[in-house]
Give the backbone structure.
Amino acid sequence: MTSLPAPVDGAARSEKNSAGVQSIEVGVALLRVLSRAEGPMKLTDLAVGAGLSTSRAHKYLASFIRCGLVRQSGMSNRYGLGPLAAELGFSALRGIDVVELSQEILDELRDQLQTVVSLAIWANRGPTIIRRAIHEQSASLVVQLGGVMNVLTSAGGRVLAAHLDRAATAPFMTAELAAKNALAAKAGLRTMRDVDAMLAEVRASGFAAISGTMLAGIVAASVPVFDYAGKIAAALTLVGLEGQLELDPESRTIRTLRAAAEDLSRRLGAPAVPKDLLPQPPAPRRRGERPPALLKA
């Protein structure tokens, strides 16, 4: 579920400050504790977390069980969130729109890194830019709202293709490999085997970077944004001038980009990523060797 405000000390709340139904506000403290728990909880732990006595907590829980907000295990007598809580959570998550939530994050990222930022989703014509935060540098001209990017030679396209179902992306990638302008070939992608290796690297490193494949002198880095189901919702991308935008996986630029994407994913209700699935630090590179997923035409 999405993050909620810190639990309120229900027992200490003053009756005089209540402008609504105070008993509901007190009971919600128990639901907040359960929403953060890693598993079913004992009554005593729940009561302490919500700032209630065990007897008072038990009364609220009995009511919550009857209406489906809480369930109780018959074997251990521990408490967890019930089917109605899950239904409410999924209903709320379905109403969250990545487009509406993203602009604030894009603007903050632009101001932090002083570069162009965009958000792209997969649409019927392929990777499509739906949000942007423009900057005074000339790279802003490359990022147009509604613009459709190539899959194989744009950072955002690569990120989307790396996480989407192959049935959706294969026709676009096949067409780009066969295109007469040979942009994919110039980027080192001549066969589907080359594409598979590139996409595997994008998934392993957690980001994609390109240099000169969109336009000479333009570089870009992109990371995935996930939704409440753990599926890719969008690609968050930085676009800048070569020599000014850092593309090294360990640079401040990429770390800041990753943090922004994680923030947006959390707002969309994305589940936490297990540590063993997070991108691993890259092996040391020899001098002059390019970062992973970075190809230049």
